[in-house]
Each structure stands twice: as structure tokens, then as C-alpha cells.
Design goal:
There is one protein chain. The chain is an alpha+beta fold. It has one domain. It contains two helices and two strands. A two-stranded antiparallel ribbon has the order 1-2. α1 runs antiparallel to α2. The longest helix is centred in the last third of the chain and has 20 residues. The radius of gyration is 20 Å and the shape is elongated. The mean pLDDT is 91.
Amino acid sequence: MKSTAVLGIVLAVLGVLALVYQGFNYTRQKAVIDVGPIHATADERERVSIPPLVGGLVLVAGVVLVLVGAKQKG
């Protein structure tokens, strides 16, 4: 399989995932108290949003790359 087609498949899958989930969550720890031997942390949940337009553009780019990779002579 051509590398262009493989890249296109990867982009198409990422585009579909971006459209379905529209972002992802992650947790990070933040130091609340740090006095001498006493340490306290708090977990903060953060969300990274991916606009649907970006997911759609990545999906279209992936499909185009798959078509271009399929038409290339090997």
C-alpha cells in the first residue's frame, strides 16, 4: 500500500473520531498546599474541544489522499 494512501486512512480515521467525540478530556494535578513536609494536590479535569469543522476538513483531506494514493502508479 502506498504511503499516501496509508496517511489518508490515518487522517480519515482521525477525522471521524474528531467528529464523533468533538474533543478529549485529561486530568492534571495541581499543587494546592506545599508547606515544608506537607503537600496537598487537587485533580483538575480539563477538556480540549475540537471544532466539527476541523474534524470534517481532516476527514476530507484523508479521503482525498486515499484517492490520490490509489491512482498513483507503483
